[in-house]
Every structure is written in C-alpha cells, then in structure tokens.
Design a protein that fits this description.
The structure holds two protein chains of two kinds. Chain A is built from 19 helices and twelve strands. By secondary structure, chain A is of the alpha+beta class. In chain A, strand 2 and strand 3 form a beta hairpin. Chain B is elongated, with a radius of gyration of 21 Å. The C terminus of chain B is likely disordered. Chain B starts with a helix and ends in a 33-residue tail after the last helix. Chain B is mainly α. The longest helix of chain B is centred in the first third of the chain and has 23 residues. The chains are: A alpha+beta, B mainly alpha. At the A-B interface, helix 7, strand 2, strand 3, strand 4 and helix 9 of A face helix 5 and helix 9 of B.
Chain lengths: 476, 225
C-alpha cells in the first residue's frame, strides 16, 4: 500500500533549528484541509483536485515546507497573504501535470539517495515515472496524423498501438519503417507547450510577493531558465538536433551508442529514432554483474558525459536511469536528449574558470564562486555563503580530484551532497547562475547512477582525456 | 420543362461544391449567395429553391462532412476501445472532416447547433443534432450505458459544442490544444456517468483497457529515444 502524505511528511528529515516534523505536518494538514474546504480525517490528507501522482504530493510537501520558511518571521498579515498565495500556487502546481516531469526528477533524485527517504518510498517513487497523461490510441492516431501527414498504420510498415515506455512528456511506441529499420516512436502529449507558457505566467504572478527578497532577480532568472528548458523539452526537433550532434561525437570503439534519428518521421511533437536493444540499470543489476562489468559501464557513463561536456559543449543534465541501456556486448546506449543545455560562450568561460579552480589556489576558487552566484569579482560575499559554496565545490569535485579510481559504492558522496544542499536551502543560499543549478542536478544524477552501479571509476583521468581531445588546456 | 429528380440532385450538389470552394477562398462572410449562384452556373433566385439561407448551405456542408466522419469512424473501430477512446475517435473524426469547412462552421454553431439556438429557426440544425446524438447513444449503449438520461445527453452536447467553439479559435499548430481539451473533457464526462448496466442477454461491453505504458527504466525494453 502506498504511504499516505502524512507518513511521508513524518519521514522527511528533520532540519536543524527548524520546528519538528509533527508541527510541520499539522500546519500542512491545516493548509490542505482549507484548500479542500472540509475537515481532514485523522491520519490522512486530502487529495488535491486532479493530483494523483505520489511524487507530486512529495514535491508539494517539500515546496510548501520550504516556501513557508521564507515567511516564518514575517508580520501576521504578510504571513496570511503568503499563505493565500502558497495555497493558490499549490493548486496551480497540482494542475501542472507536465511539471511533475520536472519535479519528478527531484523525486527520482531522492529515490537515488541513500538514507534520505525510507526504502518503501524509494520503491514507490521508482515505479511512478510516468508524467504526461497517457494517450489512448485514438488520440495518438489523430495527433500522429496531424504531425506526419498520415495515420501510424499508413506511415509505418508496423506500429504497435500499445506504448511500451513512458517519456517525459509523452510515450514511446515500437514501430518498423517501410525501409525495414526497427524504430522507437516518441509521441508528445498534445498542447503541453502552450500549457507550460500559460502556467508559468500564472506561477510567476503568484510568486510576486517574493520580490521583496534580496534574491528576487536571481529567482526570476532561475524560474525563467526552468521555463525555457521545459519548453525546449517540448520541441522534439531541437531534441533531434541535439541527438544527431551527440551521435556524431562517438566512434564505434567508444562503445557508446546514440540512436540514429529518422528525420522523415520526426517533427516537433514526434521523434522517431533507431530502437536499441539492452536493459535498464535495474535489470542489469538484477543479473548480479561482476565488479569489472560495473566498473566498465561506470567508465562508459563518465566518458559519455565528459564527451558531451567538452566536445559537445552541452550539459547532459538528465542522468536518469531510464536514459541508459546496458547492452549484452558491453556497449552503453544513451537515450533522451530532451534535457540538454548548451553552453553559451559566457557560460563556457565560467566552466573554464571552474576547471582551473578544481586544482587551483584559493584565489581561483573565490573568483569562480563569486561568478557562479552572479557576483562581480570585486563585489563582497557573505563569508558564511562563501563557506557553504566552498563546501559545495569540495563535494562535487571530490571524485574529480581523486587521482585514482573513485569508489562510488558506499554512497557517502551522495549523503554528503544532500547535507550540503540542505544547508544551502536552510540558509537560503539559493542564488546562482542558472547554469550552475543545472550543474548541481547533473552531479547528483551522475553520482547517483555510479552509486547504483557501485562502480569504481577513474573520473579524473577520463575527464582529462576528454578535455585534451577537445583542445582544452589541462595541467599535468 | 420538367426538372427530373436527378437533375435537382445534381444542381444541389453543384451549389454545395461551389459554396465549398468560395467559402474556402473568401470566407463565409466574403462569399454572397449571388457569388455562389454564379459559381454554380445557376440564376441567383434558383439557389433559394434549394437552400433558404446561406447558413442552410453551410449546415448542409457540415452534415455531409459529419456523415463522412461517421463512415470513417466505423471503418477504423478496433472493437477494444474504452468508452472514452470510442467517443474521442468519433468526435476527433468529426473535427477532421469539418476542418476544410472551418471558415463556415461558426455560423453553423451559432445559428443551429448552439444550445441557445431555437430549434424552429434551423430545422436542418435540429436534424444534424439528432443524428449526432443517435451515434453517441449507440456508442454509449455499446459500453453498457443503455439509457442515457436527458442530463447526460445535455451535458454531452454542451461538451461537444464547447469543444467546437474552442476548436474554431484554436491557433495552436494542427489545433493540438483542442485534442488535449477533448481528451480531458471526455475523461471528466465519462467519469460522471453511472456504472454501466450489465445485460445478461448481450455480450459484455469492451473491457476498459489500460493504455498506460510501462514506467521508464523499470521494464526490460528495446528502445531508442
């Protein structure tokens, strides 16, 4: 039986110096019961409108808790206003079904972090990966007909009416092209793009009370960046372009394969690509692979990410277990290029600064950290903020600074990351270049995948090799 | 000279074809009955022997399109659809058939199909509504809803005309927003229906099939993308 929200709230880690979980639970119960306009039964919480996904409930619990902390010391009337806004924002979030995709990634990250949530919750999170509403075949047929100019049965030699996998904003079907190739056809749920734009306009308006915060401009920039990336994810033509470029980066002997895109059968809402064989990480691990094989795939994962970073100049931020296929011949399949963030020239210079800071002196580090939180080099920075940022860098760079293979098997690197982020959130040090927020998401994703594999990976050596191959200066 | 039935039918068809062309080119308001008559090669007054108003012409075009939609829907049915999917398939087919006539559906909607339109003002509209609801009734019956109440049919009609109105204004690519609206509206409509009645003399209605795919990353699969 799935845990109810009260149990989840009780399972949330206690935050140092904050009211204990029971007080938070009671406050949230009151808030949700007001939203539902009726008394909440003892021990359970009101379901919110159309909200059904457990992950979205978890997200709401976290977000409600976090946002409430902003106003804890505010005047009563400000607090009441904030409560109203929060209530409406939560109702809006409840309706933003696609956003479960974005926030579900937070849930998935939680699922990969040892000790943060109980195992039974992790299992529930892992099974609820579907985000966009499922499409029955009549809807899909109509949509595909609009996009490809013919119904699936006309355009393809074979088309499986039943989806075999979920995607962030749609679903995936097996097909065979008339030319014989086996394909995976990803079809996006219709209308999501305009829904995202409208919902973000509303969400932004609801967050206006936060404009008195000193970090308002930065918060706006982060929200805008999230909206932009979500809209990118709705554009499968953009994703196809990233996928083609990524495919061109890997040679046969890299043992990393990116599926070929079939352009004639792809549009903004439909992406048809080569269907790869292989299994996902859970099934791979169920076969109890030997340590050498785990290390092998761990290294391939690291190399794939670094190749995209240095040679492709993109941040492949969606390191989700569903995006990798472990093939029986030892190759790694790389899927889903919807959440790929290219670096601008200015951002690449910032990344170069971070690379110098990894092995550089304290001055290099401070210079980089100021830039990462959008401060000028000569601006002052709160010493406590600086200390926390240094802690963040120490954490994210530890595997890269290790000159031998880094052992991801004990999960300590993940627990440390959770502690760092909790401290940052608690102290409201959330200001940052949007790029750096994405980098943080990437690190969590990469480390959690390598932890799952219990792999030992020479991440530094791989990174240096890839950097040199891309023409970057690397000190010996 | 006596005009034969065949000749009358042929003239009627010429008027409809001419109207279809002119409405598409000039819009409903931009094409007058005189223009239609000229295009059809008949006298201006003759047109009114066949259609009382320009709106009647548009209604007849819409009725033709919806007739074609019904045929298409029957051809494509697989027999395993849920009620929601069955209704969607039919309504989406109607929209697809009406698409070439999008420019003249508004007067049809406002003048004849709208819940506010008086039934006596557009007998062709009433006939179109009745035909459509008959099909809906048969779809509902196939899924165990053998005697839909007046409220159910009225709710359905509000849904259908509401979706039509949305579709007319929908500027999204391929009117994809309308597909999403229709999908979600039908979920709500079907959810509002009573439990289907089981009739021991008839075969059970098509089982509600789940169209939810496997979660990402948890099932063995061969996939790309």
């Amino acid at each position: 039986m799935s845990p109810n929200l009260a149990e989840l709230l009780a399972a949330l880690p206690a935050v140092e110096g904050e009211p204990d979980a029971s007080e938070g639970t009671a406050q949230l119960q009151q808030l949700f019961s007001r939203m539902g306009h009726r008394r909440v039964p003892v021990g359970t919480l009101q379901r919110l409108g159309t909200l059904g996904a457990l992950q979205a409930q978890i997200f709401l619990a976290y977000s409600a808790w976090w946002v409430r902390s902003w106003f804890r010391s505010a005047e009563r009337n400000e607090q009441a206003l904030a409560e109203t806004h929060l209530r409406v924002a939560l109702q809006l979030l409840a309706g933003m079904g696609y956003l479960r995709g974005a926030v579900m990634k937070a849930g998935q990250t939680l699922a990969n972090l040892p000790g943060v949530v109980p195992d039974e919750i992790v299992e529930t999170l892992e099974h609820l990966h579907f985000q966009a509403p499922p499409m029955h075949f009549s809807l899909l047929r109509e949509h595909v007909c609009n996009e490809l100019g013919g119904e699936p049965e006309e355009v393809f030699a074979e088309f499986d009416a039943r989806a075999f996998a979920a995607a962030s904003l749609g679903q995936v079907h097996r097909a065979r092209l008339k030319s014989g190739e086996e394909a995976a056809v990803k079809v996006q749920y219709p209308g999501i793009g305009s829904t995202i734009r409208a919902d973000f306009r509303n969400l932004f308006a609801l967050m206006l009370p936060l404009r008195v915060s000193k970090d308002w401009e930065n918060l706006k920039a982060q929200l805008e960046d999230l909206r932009r990336v979500l809209e990118w994810e709705t554009d499968y033509e953009k994703e196809a372009e990233f996928q083609r470029k990524a495919r061109a980066l890997f040679r046969e002997d890299d043992r990393i394969i990116v599926p070929r895109v079939f352009e004639q059968h792809s549009t903004r809402r439909v992406l048809t690509a080569e269907r790869l064989s292989g299994v996902h990480v859970n099934d791979f691990l169920a076969g109890n692979p030997p340590q050498e094989l785990r290390d092998h795939f761990g290294a391939l994962l690291g190399r794939a990410w670094y190749r995209l970073f240095f040679s492709g100049r993109v941040n492949y931020a969606d390191l989700h277990p569903g995006n990798f296929l472990f093939q029986s011949d030892g190759r790694l399949g790389l899927l889903d290029f919807g959440c790929v963030r290219p670096f601008s020239d200015r951002e690449w210079e910032l990344m170069r600064l971070s690379m110098r800071a990894v092995d550089g002196n304290h001055e290099d580090l401070v210079r980089y950290l100021k830039r990462s939180v959008a401060l000028a080099e000569d601006a002052s920075i709160d010493p406590e903020h600086l200390r926390v940022l240094e802690r963040l860098c120490a954490w994210s760079w530890r595997p890269i600074r290790c000159r031998e293979s880094f052992d991801f098997s004990n999960g300590q690197i993940l627990s440390e990351g959770v502690e760092v982020f909790r401290e940052m959130t608690r102290k409201r040090f959330t200001r940052g270049e949007p790029l750096c927020v994405f980098a943080a998401r990437m690190f969590f994703g990469l480390f959690s995948m390598l932890y799952r594999l219990r792999a030992r990976v020479p991440l530094r050596a791989i990174g240096e090799e890839e950097a040199r191959a891309a023409g970057e200066e690397v000190e010996d | 000279m006596r005009i034969t039935n065949d000749a009358k039918l042929a003239t009627r068809q010429r008027i409809l074809e001419a109207s279809r062309r002119l409405f598409a080119r000039d819009g409903f308001d931009g094409a007058s009955t005189r223009d239609v008559a000229r295009e059809a090669g008949i006298a201006a007054g003759t047109l009114f022997n066949y259609f009382s108003t320009k709106e009647s012409v548009a209604l007849s075009l819409a009725a033709e399109a919806l007739g074609a939609a019904r045929d298409g829907y029957e051809r494509k049915r697989r027999g395993e659809e849920s009620l929601e999917e069955d209704l969607f398939a039919y309504i989406a087919g109607c929209l697809r058939s009406l698409k070439p006539l999008r420019c003249c559906v508004r007067p049809v909607l406002e003048g004849a199909l709208s819940p506010l339109a008086a039934s006596t003002s557009a007998p062709e509209g009433e006939s179109l509504r009745t035909d459509h609801l008959e099909i809906i009734g048969s779809i509902l019956a196939r899924h165990g809803q053998t005697e839909p109440s007046c409220v159910t049919l009225h709710l359905y009609w509000m849904l259908f005309t509401g979706v039509l109105a949305f579709w007319l204004e929908d500027s999204s690519p391929h009117q994809e927003d309308t597909l999403a609206l229709l999908d979600q509206a039908l979920k709500m409509f079907v959810g509002s229906l009573p439990e289907p009645v089981a009739d021991p003399s008839k075969p059970s209605p098509a089982k509600e099939t789940s169209h939810e795919p496997q979660p990402r990353g948890t099932a063995r699969r061969s996939a790309g993308g």
